[in-house]
Structures are given as structure tokens and as C-alpha cells.
């Protein structure tokens, strides 16, 4: 089988996903174009050789409608003959884009693919694509007559099922901010973050290069004062085990951002004089209970480990998306994973979760961490809406 490698992977710094956030004034097409242009410029590749651009985006409506991948690559100045397609696997959309890109290369269909992701949650709020419509239909409602739930309730169910206390969740969340702040102070994000030209509050044109969602002074004590965000009587009646622990502080914040990876065959990289940074070792994608919803990273990880013949202890770093604090904690508990290897530079609770861009964001952080520490294998996995998850294992070159 043809070997697929990562030549480079980059991201924007996070922006708060609401009006007034650093990236709110940047149209998502322009945000995606910025990472695509930077990726081509950094690698020096002839953009005309790119076989496809595959971009993840969840809320494909309004500013993000009509195939933002195609719009983004044209805005970036890529040749018109380069195609682009936009995919939605909810929070794992750009991780799936990476998987599709690598599979196209491994099959021999393509030689060079850019996998990317973008989400402007400040301009296209979460759920906008279903606003005023019924996204489920009668037959799906008939299969789940008690009704599907939103992710906040799923996080509450997981916290109760695994027995995590409010203190457990808040302490883990404070850890995320502390690790992210330490990584930023140590310059550990410098290689993955590319600048986005924005206007600050004073109207000056500046480069946005610092994650706006990280709060360095966050403590578990401060987080403990926040009120539960999802307490509703209808859910309390349906799920009496829930004791309401999920808050804005132990959840990922609304975020704007974009990210992209240049993926090609090892042979093509050698031909073009490109130096790969990592290779793909294995992939998995699974479905799970759409009520618990956020537990699918557990079977996805088991599946990818089984397929690759690796054990959890063989992996040097785990990037498990922190949609809510119970997700990585339940994952680690079920798999017996070393917490010291889990999101070692902080996770989405601190660094943000720009939905469609998060998959390639995690990949950027993982590749850079392996290079910095000399680790060999890295695993990333992400819970996804309606009960799905992707898992990917890479090997540093």
C-alpha cells in the first residue's frame, strides 16, 4: 500500500466565537483562504499539483454555505483547476477530511491533497443550519420516541455514569488552561500557528497569533462558582441520575478558527524534495449510542489499536478532544490511559473548539508535540454529534 505522509500542518490561533472576538470580522472564506495560502507558501509546493482540497465545516449555511472548500481555495489564489469539497462529520469533520485525504493517497487515486477545516461560530452560530427546520424527520423520531438530546445532556449522563464529581471536572478544566498557557509561554505553539491579519478594538491592523480562549489564571476554585448550564426539568425527570455538573467552565467555548494539512505520498514528497513530518499508521471511525453520544471515542480507539496491533501504552501522546471535561476523563478511565500523556498542551476547554476546524487543529498540536518530545506514536480521537467518533494514529518521521 502507498504510504501517506504529513508534510506540514498549521492552524490559526483561536478567536472567541462571538461578536467582538478577534476573528469575528474575518469572513470564514477568508479565514480558510489564509491557512490554505500559508500552507502552500510554507511548504513551497506548486499549488497546481494539488489533486483536491477537502475541508470540514459543520454549519454549512450563510457565510459557510455553497461549498466553502471551493470558495476558500479560490480566495487563496489556488489555480482554478484545483477542486474542493466540504464535508460534515460534525466535530470530527476535518479529522475525517484528513482520513479521506490519506485514503485517496494510499489507494493511488491522488498524490497530493490538502485536508482542512474552518468554523466561524461568531458569524454562523452552532445549530444555524437547522434553525427553524426539523433535521430529524418522522422515522428517526419513531426510532427514538423519547427524543434525542443535545450534547450538554450527554455530557451530564457521562459524568454521572462514570462517577465524576464536580471537582473532578473543574480540576481537569483548570489543568487544560494551565497546560495551554504554559505551552504558549514556552513557544510550543509557534510552529503551528499562522498569523491572521485582523483589526483590533482600536481599529489597528494587527496579526492575531495568540489563542484568545486560553485563561491562564483559571483555577478549579473559580470554576466551582459557575452554575450548571443545562439543568432543565424535562431532562431531570427523564434522567434522574443526573446531578448537574456541566458548566461553561468545564465545556469547550464557542470558537472561530481554521486549520490545514498538506498530505501526500512518500514517493511524491521525495520527488518534490519535501520533508515529511509524520506518516499515517491507522484509522477508525465508529458509531455509538446517540443519547450518550460522546462515548464513541472509546470504541473508536479500541478499533484503531486493534487494527494497528498497538497497545494504548505504545502511544506517546493522546489528543482527545475536550468537548466537555467528562469526555477525555471517561476515555482515559475505560482505556487505562496515562493521564500524563493526555492533551499534554491543553485541550479544547482552553484552546477552543471551532467545530469543523478542530480535527486538523488537534493534528497540528500532536505533530508538534511528538517532534518536541521525540515521541514516536500519537493518537487523536474526537466525539461527534449523533454518536460517532474518528480515531487516527500517526508516527513521527
TrEMBL record:
EC number(s) given by UniProt: 2.3.1.-
Domain Thiolase N-terminal: start-end pairs: 5-266
Active-site feature positions: 91, 353, 383
The keyword Transferase is annotated on this UniProt entry: yes
InterPro entries reported in the protein's UniProt record: Thiolase, Thiolase-like, Thiolase_C, Thiolase_CS, Thiolase_N
Keywords: Acyltransferase, Transferase
Gene3D superfamilies per record: 3.40.47.10
Domain of life: Bacteria
Molecular function as annotated in GO: acyltransferase activity, transferring groups other than amino-acyl groups
Domain named Thiolase C-terminal: residues: 275-396
NCBIfam families to which the protein is assigned, alphabetical: AcCoA-C-Actrans
UniProt record similarity statement: Belongs to the thiolase-like superfamily. Thiolase family.
Protein name: Acyltransferase
Organism: Microbacterium terrae
Primary gene name: fadA_5
Amino acid at each position: 500500500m502507498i504510504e501517506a505522509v504529513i508534510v506540514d500542518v498549521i492552524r490559526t490561533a483561536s478567536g472567541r466565537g462571538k461578536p467582538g472576538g478577534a476573528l469575528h470580522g474575518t469572513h470564514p472564506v477568508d479565514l480558510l483562504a489564509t491557512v490554505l495560502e500559508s500552507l502552500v507558501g510554507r511548504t513551497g509546493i506548486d499549488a497546481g499539483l494539488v489533486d483536491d482540497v477537502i475541508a470540514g465545516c459543520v454549519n454549512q449555511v450563510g457565510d459557510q454555505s455553497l461549498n466553502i472548500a471551493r470558495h476558500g481555495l479560490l480566495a487563496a489564489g489556488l489555480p482554478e483547476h484545483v477542486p474542493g469539497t466540504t464535508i460534515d462529520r460534525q466535530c470530527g469533520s476535518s479529522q475525517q477530511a484528513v482520513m479521506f485525504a490519506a485514503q485517496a493517497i494510499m489507494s493511488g487515486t491522488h498524490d497530493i491533497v490538502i485536508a482542512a477545516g474552518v468554523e466561524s461560530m461568531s458569524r454562523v452560530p452552532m445549530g444555524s443550519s437547522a434553525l427553524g427546520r426539523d433535521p430529524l424527520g418522522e422515522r428517526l423520531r419513531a426510532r427514538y420516541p423519547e427524543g434525542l438530546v443535545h450534547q450538554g445532556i450527554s455530557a451530564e449522563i457521562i459524568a454521572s455514569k462514570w462517577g465524576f464529581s464536580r471537582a473532578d471536572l473543574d480540576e481537569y478544566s483548570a489543568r487544560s488552561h494551565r497546560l495551554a498557557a504554559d505551552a504558549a509561554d514556552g513557544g510550543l505553539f509557534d510552529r503551528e500557528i499562522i498569523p491572521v491579519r485582523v483589526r483590533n478594538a482600536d481599529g489597528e491592523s494587527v496579526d492575531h497569533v495568540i489563542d484568545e480562549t486560553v485563561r491562564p489564571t483559571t483555577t478549579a476554585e473559580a470554576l466551582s462558582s459557575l452554575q450548571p448550564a443545562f439543568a432543565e426539568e424535562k431532562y431531570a425527570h427523564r434522567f434522574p441520575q443526573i446531578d448537574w455538573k456541566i458548566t461553561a467552565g468545564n465545556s469547550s467555548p464557542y470558537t472561530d478558527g481554521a486549520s490545514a494539512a498538506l498530505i501526500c505520498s512518500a514517493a511524491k514528497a521525495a520527488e518534490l524534495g519535501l520533508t515529511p513530518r509524520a506518516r499515517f499508521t491507522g484509522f477508525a471511525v465508529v458509531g455509538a449510542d446517540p443519547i450518550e453520544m460522546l462515548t464513541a471515542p472509546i470504541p473508536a480507539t479500541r478499533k484503531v489499536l486493534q487494527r494497528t496491533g498497538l497497545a494504548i501504552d505504545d502511544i506517546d501522546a493522546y489528543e482527545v478532544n475536550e468537548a466537555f471535561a467528562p469526555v477525555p476523563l471517561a476515555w482515559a478511565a475505560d482505556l487505562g490511559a496515562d493521564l500524563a500523556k493526555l492533551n499534554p498542551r491543553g485541550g479544547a476547554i482552553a484552546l477552543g473548539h471551532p467545530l469543523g476546524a478542530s480535527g486538523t487543529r488537534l493534528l497540528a498540536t500532536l505533530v508538534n508535540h511528538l517532534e518536541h518530545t521525540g515521541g514516536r506514536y500519537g493518537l487523536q480521537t474526537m466525539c461527534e454529534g449523533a454518536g460517532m467518533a474518528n480515531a487516527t494514529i500517526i508516527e513521527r518521521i
